[in-house]
Design a protein that fits this description.
By secondary structure, this protein is of the alpha+beta class. Helix content is 36%, strand content 15%.
């Protein structure tokens, strides 16, 4: 018996001496001649593989070798390196074993395209499609397709032999000896079937490949026109063939290859190409077709074969070899650059890293020199002057040529030893690569580098009727669009989009490839060419010798022979080979123990290993011997496990089988015994029958028995008599009357399909009152039975089925006249026809309220209707954009155009997308006309409202299309009337619409039906007229107001504005609703916003979610639960918010003691809840609802659970407000709870004295016992003074001690009120005076315009503000308490005039930012009017609508001197600003409809800023709305600037501004304090769209200045313009041009301090009665006292020159 240590190293084939050495590290002589001789010997013996340790050297035999079959695979599977002769399979097996053993990705680097389980096209050689060198072939697929396609298909694609195509015959070699292209094509077809490529997809692939071949045969002639040579197509037949194969326009294809298209704003300019340029355009299309097809095939295959989960991988890189041709161009430079990089990678792994490892591990080693090719790589690609970098820079300049590129290369690299200029002035340069010198011709370098698909070519192929072709180019167009939208965001300056060049993409792909290889364990296969003639059996020593030198194989043999390529850490070595020796488990991992284990495993010599500092170094042969033993041990262990496992399973199966056999035997014996007993009983009865029978004889009976023949039990007698009747009936006795008896007769069951159709037919036909039948004409001889049959359906008794009526299905001849007439249904029979010349299509035209498509049949019908209409170009209900969007949705769900097969969920998704995303698809169309000039032709009615349409000519498609002129939702329609027969009058909320249509009654009926259905179950009504009752107790409203209806059960009156309407119904204005009092006041909120309530209503299609489910217990939604919820109570659309809500609920339960604490204290839990509320404002209402739920009907086993819940509610309300939506419901809940006795929260008053307190900040106190500043808490227990820092009680006064209180208004010079409190009894009282902070109203802020589905509206958080306001250079000066109080007071004033909203998603931001880029581009081209664009260093402004000037156009400049430009001097506001920005702000009620007439786009670069200013009060109304894009930034209020030197103070208030956020400024923040954007706050590019409304009396240029009637009271006109105020202001010079070097010079900031602007435009104390308009948004609070004082010194304030950046 062998032990594990004595296992032999199995070798399946002994090495023969005449075969040479299999591993060249065993060569004693490491000279080049010895290596060359060994390789030649093995090559002549037809042994093409040789090892250098674990590196495989392969010599190309230039013939097919039969060494890659299944037999060889099995021979190398599971074997260590060295057990078998050298082979590629051995390397693959070792890589796989190492991957599975070490759990590390592997990489096999071969020196010729890329393949593997997942394919990545890093370096696709597109140039091979259109050009091949001598003795080279194009890609094999072309030749295989021509050889393997059947004759019928070749004729279909107009294909001929390979030698007839220019793209295939350039190399002169169309066949490879020994390669059967037809057989390989057959295998390709089989592979496509395995990979599930449909027949249509295969045909599309062959169409594209055939079109490439035909495209190469398109040739041109030159002719002269207008003194220039241009190209014309001679082979028109080839153009027509390509167009037919690709299903595109032949004229468009011919234009694409003979003309260059330049697009301007108004037209397209077609420039004819020369012959050379036309050939390039033709080749570019061919390469693009092949590249896109290759990428599509790669993605398809990867989706099928690549594992979805994270898995280990073996990457196989087979790169094309080094190239040196007669003519070397751009492609050869890229290929050789890739080979240089991979050679560098090889050197790094084999030489550099290995020798560095020896030094680290302190191994005695003499360094082996190797050729480092890093300088050659730097020459080609290093920034900024590498050859490829210069080529990319030149590609950006329109005037650059190949010659200018060559001159720059000569200039920068002329002295480089690796670079050689030509001796003669030739367009070429030479690079000394690691494999030798290569000369490159620069002809067409720039053209080949700029390898982009023109837009006109994209549009041409997107319009292809071949699905695969259209999808290929549509996907490519989307990629280009994404690249254009993303460019420039991280740039420091505005620039145009530059498409990536071929060189840039090539370098990026190569870097990604090498990066992935560095993360893997590499194996190398070095390939050698035996000769340059590609002849089999020919070995040219000089050719092989040169490859040995430049590839570093000689140095590789030496380092692998003298070095130790295997390096294993001590611990890994012991753990790996412990199974082979008897060694204890806790052995110390050091070199001594490793050597001891190694000597026990196999005989070794000191030269075979070396002990390093932390690793054991081994020779390759020793390592392979160890691995062989370990593999053998594992193999024996696996056999042992299998043996025992098989024994266990066989025994278990045997026992089971034995139990079953015993059971079967026992059952069989029992059955036989029972049968025998019955047989004996029958014999016994027969023998003794006279004893049992009542009648002596058996005769033929013709009448039913009166009694049973034998003696039976009484309960069986009836069954016996019935059985005898069945016997008589079966024998045909006529006396029983046939089936009139009520016995059971079994009929033949229908086919399940027919039965299902019968049921469906009944369901579909049940509600109908009439069916269509065919009525015969006057022709004789034709009498269809369907019109004359009147049959009564037979009664079905216990399983009988009605007999089918035989009805003729044939149609009359064409000579007969057939009329169709409606008849009432007279029977349950239905008829059909066959062989008919017509088709009837059922169409879903419009979705009515409560429509659903859950029925599978209806779902499929509507789905197929959408599918067919999308693929049919004649459907005018779909626009081109909608059709492309639907096609992309089909492609995402992999729907086949011929036989679409989809799941119900996919069908519903597609129907919902068509219903909600296509404007007029599901609409009923009526002919209609409007007033003259409106252009209305069609009125469309749908589930979304009504739309006015007209027919227009299609842009890119034949025929006409429907264009939507205007649309109205049903919420806009109050009612509709028909004053005359063809007249329609729509009474809308804001206007009246009159249309004329012959279908006016039908339109009115449809609209009335929709409005009626939508009103059902609604709690809101719309006022159709104004109503102002004299009784103030009744509700007044205006036309168009939305009124909320309340239940009459418990109407309330109060501050919320509730009152009974004119008809006695409870109604109110939206937003002031109070929920009804009752057991659960929060129930109204829960019904409208809770997830459970919404699920109980309807799904997205309008159908009940669970019809058979029990009715929802609404009360349970707001009652205590012991189980944590799994999703939020409120129906949030964001699943991540719902998950956070579930976590918050666990924290609530943990605080209340109903959930395990898991090591968290109460403070930790509270901090978790408050942190969630701070980071996610939408969770605040959710937390309120969760706490209310847990304190309602609390049935917890913890006695203090409910009390802790009230405490948590108290803490939450102290930190965060609820939304305006939840506020009235929560208030009603608290009022209801306060009226109930003995509620748990009342116990908190004693347990927590501060519970329910109102808190005030005390600035100072006259009582010495109270340390100020402090915090005052007022509740029913009295006054509690708390420490400002620790919040610990300092002093306490009960309510009994308080005799009186008096509030004193602020004294002179102070803005803080005082409170005087008389403390003590009547005899001894003391007055305590408290100075408080001024009250600042903070309005409640809603969480969304229409609930929780919209954007969130928020206030700036307290943490966002920095109140210190010192200059940067101040060192020791600290502000006093009084200054800090003043600044805090001013910060609160600013905050009161700021609102921020997050309305715009990242996708919407990207769309708007792309539009801003377009504005910048148009401005650079000079396409805007003179005063639209205002340029400055690092900041540009673009005015639209109404623009104003503050600079050189004015004769006097300064605050108050700004003027609007004359109307028409500034471009109108772009439509996209209305559609993408303003409309959304109006929908969320940020601004009213029609408010904006001035829009400014400010575009800042990093470091740019806008100096502190106030928007001109005499120019613009308030508020000021701004939307931020591109990046986050900040807005600073109250900054002060000092000059000489420049110093900027800290702001009074620092407001962070997020990307996509909306900032609304009004009141103090807009009028009385400056705001600015500081340079240090703009880290990245930022753009702001500012929206405002100009005042009607705003002054303009070329008009007289402000009159006194416009100015506020107390404002003198001479303060504005002095003695020149009546002069006419005329425009001066245009805006200054930007200095390109200004960004590199010190920036000078000039500003106007906020005091100056206020002193110029306003009195000392602000008056806002006639000077500001903010009624729509907010009520401004104002000081009530009169402030008419003049300036203290009586003189006008100084005016400061200002320049904004």
């Amino acid at each position: 018996m062998q032990t594990l240590c004595s296992l032999p190293i199995v070798r399946y084939q002994e090495q023969q001496e005449e075969d040479g050495l299999e591993d060249m590290t065993q060569l004693e002589d490491l000279q080049e001649a010895a290596v060359l001789s060994n390789i030649r010997t093995r090559f002549e013996r037809q042994l093409i593989y040789t090892y250098i340790g674990s590196i495989l050297v392969s010599v190309n035999p230039y013939r097919l070798c039969n060494i890659y079959g299944t037999e060889q695979v099995l021979q190398y599977e599971g074997r260590a390196l060295g057990e078998n002769p050298p082979h590629l399979f051995a390397i693959a097996n070792v890589a796989y074993s190492k991957m599975m053993d070490a759990k590390h990705n592997q990489c096999i680097v071969i020196s010729g395209l890329i393949c593997g389980a997942i394919t990545s096209q890093y370096l696709l050689e597109k140039s091979r499609v259109v050009f091949q060198a001598k003795n080279e072939r194009n890609y094999h697929i072309f030749y295989e397709m021509l050889a393997g396609l059947p004759a019928q298909q070749r004729q279909k694609y107009c294909l001929q032999g390979a030698e007839t195509y220019y793209y295939l015959n350039q190399g002169g070699n169309c066949e490879i000896p020994g390669k059967d292209d037809a057989e390989d094509f057959r295998r390709l077809l089989n592979t496509m079937e395995v990979l599930s490529f449909s027949i249509e997809e295969q045909n599309s692939i062959f169409r594209i490949l055939s079109s490439i071949l035909h495209l190469g045969n398109v040739y041109f002639e030159k002719y002269e026109t207008d003194c220039q040579e241009v190209a014309t197509v001679v082979s028109a037949t080839e153009i027509q063939t390509v167009a037919e194969l690709l299903q595109i326009s032949p004229e468009g294809l011919q234009k694409a290859i003979t003309f260059k298209v330049t697009e301007t704003l108004r037209e397209k300019i077609f420039t004819p190409l020369t012959v050379e340029s036309a050939v390039d355009a033709r080749d570019a299309i061919a390469k693009t077709l092949y590249s896109l097809l290759f990428g599509w095939l790669t993605d398809r295959i990867n989706k099928l074969v690549y594992p979805r989960q994270e898995a280990l991988s073996i990457a196989i890189l087979d790169i094309y070899g080094f190239e040196d041709l007669n003519f070397n161009s751009f492609e050869q430079l890229c290929i050789n650059y890739a080979n240089e990089y991979l050679q560098f990678f090889f050197n790094k792994i084999v030489f550099q890293e290995e020798q560095e490892e020896y030094i680290r591990e302190q191994i005695e080693w003499k360094e082996i020199p190797f050729s480092d090719n890093q300088p050659c790589i730097d020459l080609i690609s290093q920034k900024p002057y590498g050859i490829l970098r210069i080529l990319d820079d030149q590609s950006c300049f329109p005037q650059a040529t190949d010659h200018t590129f060559l001159q720059k290369c000569h200039y920068h690299h002329g002295t480089n030893p690796l670079y050689t200029k030509p001796k003669m002035p030739l367009p070429e340069f030479t690079i000394k690569h690691y494999a030798g010198k290569v000369t490159y011709q620069v002809h067409k370098f720039l053209d080949k580098n700029y390898d982009q698909v023109r837009q006109d070519v994209l549009d041409l192929f997107i319009s292809s009727r071949t699905k695969v072709v259209a999808n290929l180019f549509f996907g490519h167009a989307q990629v280009l669009a994404r690249q254009k939208s993303l460019v420039g965001r991280s740039s420091t300056r505005t620039r145009r989009y530059k498409a990536p060049t071929v060189a840039a993409r090539f370098q990026q792909s190569l870097l990604e490839l090498v990066e992935k290889m560095e993360r893997c364990n590499p194996f190398f296969v070095r390939c050698l060419k035996p000769n340059n003639k590609k002849e089999p059996g020919l070995f040219e020593a000089d050719v092989v010798s040169s490859q040995l030198r430049y590839s570093g194989i000689l140095e590789t043999i030496r380092i692998r022979k003298e070095g130790f390529p295997i390096r294993i850490p001590f611990l890994v070595f012991i753990d790996r080979y412990r199974c082979l020796v008897d060694m204890w488990s806790n052995v110390i991992p050091n070199g001594t123990n490793c050597v001891e284990m190694l000597r026990n495993l196999c005989p070794v010599t000191p030269s075979m290993y070396y002990v390093g500092v932390s690793k054991l170094f081994l020779k390759e042969q020793l390592y392979q011997a160890l691995e062989s033993k370990r593999s053998r041990a594992h193999h024996l262990a696996a056999l042992t496990l299998q043996r025992y496992a098989r024994t266990f399973f066989i025994k278990r199966r045997f026992r089971s089988l034995r139990r079953k056999i015993v059971l079967l035997q026992s059952r069989a014996r029992g059955y036989l015994r029972h049968t025998l007993i019955k047989f004996r009983s029958l014999v016994h009865i027969y023998v003794n029958r006279r004893r049992y029978l009542k009648e002596p004889a058996f005769g033929m009976l013709t009448a039913p028995l009166a009694a049973p023949l034998t003696r039976l039990d009484e309960e069986l007698c009836h069954e016996a008599l019935g059985l005898f009747k069945l016997i008589l009936r079966f024998m045909g006795d006529p006396g029983l009357g046939g089936p009139k008896e009520g016995s059971k007769i079994f009929g033949k069951k229908q086919d399940p399909h027919e039965e299902a159709m019968q049921i469906l037919k009944g369901q579909l036909s049940a509600p109908r009152e009439a069916v269509a039948a065919v009525k015969p004409g006057t022709s004789a001889g034709y009498q269809p039975r369907a019109a004359s049959v009147r049959c009564q359906a037979p009664s079905v008794v216990r399983g009988f089925f009605p007999l089918a009526v035989a009805v003729s299905r044939e149609l009359p001849s064409e000579a007969q006249q057939v009329q169709t007439q409606l008849h009432r249904s007279c029977s349950e029979d239905f008829y059909t026809y066959r062989n008919v010349p017509w088709k009837i299509y059922i169409r879903k035209e419009v979705f009515y309220p409560k429509d659903n498509f859950n029925d599978p049949l209806l779902l499929d019908l509507v789905f197929r209707q959408i599918f067919n209409d999308t693929l049919c170009d004649t459907c005018v209900r779909l626009s081109q954009e909608e059709r492309l969007r639907m096609k992309s949705l089909f492609a995402e769900n992999k729907l086949d155009s011929f036989s679409p097969v989809a799941t119900e969920s996919v069908k519903k998704e597609i129907i919902a997308a068509a219903r909600d995303g296509c404007e007029v698809y599901f609409s009923r169309l009526f002919p209609a006309t409007g007033s003259v000039g409106t252009g209305v032709q069609i009125l469309a009615g749908s589930h979304a409202g009504i739309k006015l349409l007209r027919l227009v000519k299609g842009t890119n498609m034949p025929g006409e299309q429907l264009r939507v002129l205007r649309g109205y939702s049903y919420a806009d329609v109050l009612f509709v009337t028909t004053p005359s027969r063809n007249m329609l009058e729509f009474n809308l909320s804001s206007e009246k619409l009159i249309l004329f249509s012959p279908k006016a009654p039908q339109v009115k009926a449809m609209v009335d039906h929709f409005i009626t259905e939508l009103r059902k179950d609604s709690q809101y009504v719309v006022a159709v007229r104004n109503y102002s009752p004299e009784d103030r107790g009744q509700l007044s409203f205006h036309k168009g107001d939305i009124i909320h209806l309340q239940s009459l059960e418990q109407p309330e009156r109060g501050d919320a504005g509730f009152s009974e309407g004119p008809e006695g119904a409870g109604s109110e204005r939206v937003g002031a609703a109070l929920p009804p009092r009752g057991a659960l006041p929060m129930l109204g909120f829960a019904r409208q916003y809770f997830r459970a309530a919404r699920r109980g209503q309807t799904d997205s299609c309008g159908q009940k979610a669970k019809q058979a489910a029990e009715p929802l217990d609404e009360m349970e939604m707001l009652k205590f639960t012991k189980v944590p919820i799994q999703e939020s109570l409120i129906d949030f659309t964001d699943s991540s918010i719902s998950k956070l809500a579930a976590e918050a609920f666990q924290a609530v339960m943990r605080f209340m003691g109903d959930y395990p604490p898991r090591g968290q204290s109460e403070l930790d839990t509270v901090c978790t809840i408050l942190k969630l509320c701070a980071e996610h404002e939408v969770l605040r209402d959710e937390l309120y609802c969760q706490i209310v739920k847990q304190i309602t009907d609390n049935t917890s086993s913890k006695p203090d659970s409910c009390q802790k819940g009230w405490r948590l509610l108290y803490i939450l309300s102290a930190y965060y407000k609820c939304s305006e939506v939840l506020q009235p419901f929560l208030l009603a809940f608290l009022q209801d709870a306060g009226g109930r006795p003995a509620l748990p929260f009342q116990g908190l008053l004693s347990a927590y004295p501060m519970f329910g307190s109102s808190f005030f900040y005390i600035q100072s106190c006259s009582n010495n016992a109270i340390v100020s500043p402090c915090i005052l808490a007022v509740n029913q227990n009295g006054l509690n003074f708390l420490s400002k820092e620790t919040h610990e009680p300092v002093a306490k006064f009960s309510l009994k001690e308080i005799q009186s209180t008096r509030t004193q208004r602020p004294a002179g010079g102070s803005s803080s009120p005082y409170v005087e409190i008389a403390l003590g009894d009547l005899l001894s009282q003391g007055i305590t005076q408290l100075q408080l902070e001024p009250p600042v109203p903070k309005p409640w802020v809603p969480l969304g315009g229409l609930g929780y589905k919209g954007g969130s509206l928020r206030e700036p958080t307290e943490a966002s503000y920095d109140r210190k306001r010192r200059y940067h250079e101040d060192s020791d000066s600290e502000p006093s308490d009084y200054e800090e109080q003043k600044e805090e007071e001013e910060a609160r004033k600013v905050k009161s005039g700021i609102r921020q909203l997050r309305l715009f998603s990242m996708e919407e931001c990207a769309k708007i930012e792309a539009r801003i880029e377009d504005v910048v581009s148009r401005a650079e081209k000079g396409l805007y009017k003179e005063h639209t664009v205002d340029r400055a260093p690092l900041r540009n402004k673009y005015f639209f609508g109404e623009g104003y000037t503050y600079g050189s156009q004015l004769q006097r400049r300064g605050p108050g001197q700004e003027r609007l430009y004359p109307r028409g001097e500034v471009d109108a506001i772009p439509e996209w600003v209305h559609d993408l920005v303003i409309r959304k702000l109006v929908e969320h009620r940020v601004i009213p409809e029609g408010f904006v007439n001035s829009a400014v786009i400010n575009d800042y670069q990093p470091g740019g800023c806008i100096v502190s200013h106030v928007d001109p009060i005499h120019i613009f109304e308030r508020p000021i709305v701004s939307v931020s894009f591109f990046s986050d930034s900040a807005l600073c209020f109250g900054c002060k600037f000092q000059f000489k030197p420049i110093r900027v103070s800290e702001p009074v208030l620092f407001l962070p501004v997020k990307r996509g956020s909306v900032t609304v400024l009004s009141g103090y923040a807009a009028d009385e304090i400056t705001h600015c954007i500081r340079p240090q706050d703009i880290k990245e590019r930022r753009a702001v769209i500012i929206l405002r409304k100009t005042r009607l009396d705003a002054p303009r240029l070329e008009t007289k200045s402000l009159s006194s009637s416009v100015l506020p009271p107390g404002y003198t006109s001479d303060r504005l313009s002095g003695s020149n105020r009546d002069q006419i202001l005329k425009p001066k010079r245009s805006h200054r041009k930007a200095d390109p070097d200004a960004a590199h010079r010190p920036r000078i900031l000039e500003m106007d301090k906020e005091e100056n602007r206020r002193s110029v435009l306003l009195p000392k104390h602000r008056r806002r009665s006639n000077f500001s308009s903010e009624n729509y948004w907010r009520r401004s609070y104002e000081y009530t006292e009169d402030c008419d004082e003049e300036e203290e010194d009586g003189s006008p304030a100084r005016k400061v020159k200002m320049r904004r950046h």
